[in-house]
């Protein structure tokens, strides 16, 4: 993906820069923080995603002639500000939670240090990326935990915007899904892609048998045949007759799944197709997947519910100025005064406190005035530091970007999940699995 | 926006083409239809959006060297199929509901006629576009109807993926919103953009007064000042003192809005700022907007709820093969046999039956075998035809694309809304406002 990302931005970011350049405050060094005030209703934990994508998008946040000309024509900012924008590229520092990390209310997920003008312009992009991707990853992680090791494929591209489909496939993969139907996600992020045929393919042919023959001819007997276009039992019989007992899998996309799946397994076994897998794909979410735990399902395909965050389509993260330097160069913690939208000013650091069994017990957020004025906490065996440098002087740490960063995030998520207390994985509504404490 | 859209596609579309090319069925002329089996839970009507964007994306659905190389390397299809893909561009016909049209369960929103291979490949793109954009437009239309003529601005970019943010701004505009915060939506689709400052701008300054002075200096006294960073009453007093009684507007982003808004109006009037407007932006949705109908609000800014479809983030549309020619050239209506996922085979046409007051009473769907085998219905005063040609031989009708098409869709939506029965605009859950009848 290429091209400027500078206009994926709310207009007020640029008008603030415009006004702050005029009175000189634009150059005050500032700390901005992204965090979630709360988890989606009843969830026990969230999973950070979007970070690797974001770093790449920030590197492409440049105003080229096309963007400047449009801003000039529409008088979004003063001409002097256009000159400043023309030279803009982000040169600050970003640190925060690793992609794939678990998070809780108040976790300081991302901190940006730069001049006010440099940092504030990134607000919309930071939040678009973290909110959407974390929403998908947080929902996906719950599906992964109830799937009990059975593989999951993301196939919800058709239920979300064509661009967000790619991001959703990536976020679900980080959360532990194994594959996606989306080809661009395969190309851009190295995610395994899957899929063989829809009902249309069967309906195109004069009979189900002809359709199966055509598919096996092209894709081989290890393919997955969709057996529920007409009658499932007849579909299974035809599938094994056409492909042989070495048939890779059958897919079921409708019906009362627990019952149907059991019957199909019995039928496959009776036909000798004992190694033929069963994959199901009918409007699944974490609850219906859990309900299938006792059924002989081999893998799941999940669409709508994962790409829409299963009831929580935005993760609710906000991006706030938490500290800035005054004219004397001292850091001043700042926060909006509001009861309903409280935020905690000042620089943050964070660690997860683990007990002797390496189980997470507390999210510790350390408060300071600003980067230069606070001591670091001392990590020890039971205090795992959560914040890592992501970008220095505007240069992304390459270990977090691209397909490699995506795989690293997936691996990190797998480790972190083992650390969460067992209550975290309950599906029912409840409180965050561990409390957040400010020190 | 440029670049190939061909990989924004589920893998199984290409494997179906692969297998169908091998047995020759790929070239069977086919009719695919996009429709929604039902409206989101309790909704009375939906609003079609995404059509104009889709037509542009289809014109860019081409496999260039980069796409072909990736498909070859990952062995998604056989080499012979790659040659076919290299020559592919959509050359078929598309007709359907105009963008901005109201729709109901079963409304035949989009019909594609082309060979199977040509048409099936567009499935993912068709559904991504229609599902997401219609979800936003359908939620936005409800907000517009309860806003009772007060202007609405879409400002949810930060709550959805950076690409879907642009599509959401466009869909909300079609549904009757007046502006967006998203600059790319302004550039790409000609939508008016708005926004002045966030809390960070006030917190950057040593006092609220200094922040307001800086903003008025740069943006003029007609700007909108955000008055709730500290104490709202003091903020309003400072705003009028700094900008004068000609201040454009104050924005309130927190607090118990009905109470706060009334107090702010009284205070502004007492200060002589009788023409200063009040805009509110605090986590609004159709229900909280309705609750403010008696308060002296002048305009609304809506974020999360509109870009996430206010509880229905995907419109639930599906894309089905409904008819195809057999080897003799006759059209054969086809449909999957399933009780839970029923669809009606065959070609459709549609009209809305209006009564003598031009109020919609029925969604009529006319069934036929295929394009050549069915009589057209006779439109009359009380039968408004709903389907129009959108693309012929792969060429989009330019009146539906670009900023002009977006404006046309917005105007069409405004007309259509006047036609709906009054029950359609009730916020509470209920049945579709008119029944769908098949003939």
From TrEMBL, chains A, B:
Organism domain of life:
Bacteria
Q: Name one GO biological process term.
A: NAD+ biosynthetic process via the salvage pathway
CDD domains in the record, alphabetically?
A: NAPRTase_A
Q: Where is the Nicotinate phosphoribosyltransferase N-terminal domain?
A: 7-131
Q: What is its EC number?
A: 6.3.4.21
Which GO molecular function annotation, any one, does this entry have?
nicotinate phosphoribosyltransferase activity
The UniProt keyword set, sorted, is: Glycosyltransferase, Ligase, Phosphoprotein, Pyridine nucleotide biosynthesis, Transferase
What are its GO cellular component terms?
cytosol
**EC class of this enzyme?**
ligase
UniProt modification remark: Transiently phosphorylated on a His residue during the reaction cycle. Phosphorylation strongly increases the affinity for substrates and increases the rate of nicotinate D-ribonucleotide production. Dephosphorylation regenerates the low-affinity form of the enzyme, leading to product release.
Question: Which SUPFAM superfamilies does the UniProt entry name for this protein?
Answer: Nicotinate/Quinolinate PRTase C-terminal domain-like, Nicotinate/Quinolinate PRTase N-terminal domain-like
Catalytic reactions of this protein: 5-phospho-alpha-D-ribose 1-diphosphate + nicotinate + ATP + H2O = nicotinate beta-D-ribonucleotide + ADP + phosphate + diphosphate
- Give the pathway: Cofactor biosynthesis; NAD(+) biosynthesis; nicotinate D-ribonucleotide from nicotinate: step 1/1
Which family, according to UniProt? Belongs to the NAPRTase family.
What this chain does, per the entry, is described as:
Catalyzes the first step in the biosynthesis of NAD from nicotinic acid, the ATP-dependent synthesis of beta-nicotinate D-ribonucleotide from nicotinate and 5-phospho-D-ribose 1-phosphate.
Q: What is this protein called?
A: Nicotinate phosphoribosyltransferase
Q: Which organism is it from?
A: Agromyces agglutinans
């Amino acid at each position: 993906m290429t091209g400027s990302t500078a206009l994926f931005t709310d207009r007020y970011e640029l008008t603030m820069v415009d006004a702050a350049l005029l009175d000189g405050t634009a150059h005050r060094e500032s700390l901005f923080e992204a965090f979630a005030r709360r988890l989606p209703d009843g969830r026990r934990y969230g999973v950070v995603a979007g970070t690797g994508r974001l770093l790449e998008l920030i590197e492409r946040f440049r105003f080229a002639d096309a963007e400047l000309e449009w801003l000039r024509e529409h008088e979004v900012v003063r001409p002097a500000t256009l000159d400043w924008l023309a030279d803009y590229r982000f040169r600050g520092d970003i640190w925060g939670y690793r992609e794939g990390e678990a998070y809780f209310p108040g976790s300081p997920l991302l901190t940006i240090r730069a001049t006010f003008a440099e940092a504030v312009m990134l607000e919309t992009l930071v939040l678009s990326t973290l909110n959407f991707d974390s929403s998908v990853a947080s929902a996906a992680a719950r599906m992964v935990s109830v799937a009990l090791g059975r593989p999951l494929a993301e196939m919800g591209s058709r239920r979300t915007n064509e661009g967000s489909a790619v991001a959703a496939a990536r976020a679900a993969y980080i959360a532990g899904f194994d594959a996606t139907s989306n080809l661009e996600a395969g190309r851009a992020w190295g995610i395994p892609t899957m899929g063989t045929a829809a009902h249309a393919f069967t309906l195109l042919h004069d009979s189900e048998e002809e359709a199966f023959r055509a598919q096996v001819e092209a894709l081989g007997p290890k393919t997955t045949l969709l057996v529920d276009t007409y009658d499932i039992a007849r579909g299974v019989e035809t599938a094994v007759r056409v492909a042989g007992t070495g048939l890779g899998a059958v897919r079921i996309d409708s019906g009362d799944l627990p019952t149907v799946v059991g019957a199909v397994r019995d039928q496959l076994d009776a036909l000798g197709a004992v190694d033929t897998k069963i994959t199901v794909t009918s409007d699944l979410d974490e609850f219906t997947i859990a309900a299938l735990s006792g059924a002989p399902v081999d893998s799941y395909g999940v669409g709508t519910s994962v790409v829409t965050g299963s009831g929580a389509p935005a993760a609710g993260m906000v991006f706030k100025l938490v500290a800035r330097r005054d004219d004397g160069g001292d850091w001043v913690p700042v926060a909006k005064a509001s009861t309903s939208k409280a935020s905690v000013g000042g620089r943050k650091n964070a660690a997860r406190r683990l007990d002797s069994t390496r189980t997470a017990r507390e999210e510790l957020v350390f408060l300071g005035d600003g980067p230069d004025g606070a001591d670091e906490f001392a990590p020890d065996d039971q205090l795992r530091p959560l914040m890592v440098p992501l970008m220095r002087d505007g240069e992304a740490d390459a270990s977090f970007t691209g397909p490699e960063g995506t795989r690293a995030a997936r691996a990190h998520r797998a480790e972190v999940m083992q650390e969460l207390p067992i209550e975290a994985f309950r599906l029912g509504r409840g409180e965050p699995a561990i409390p957040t404490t400010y020190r």
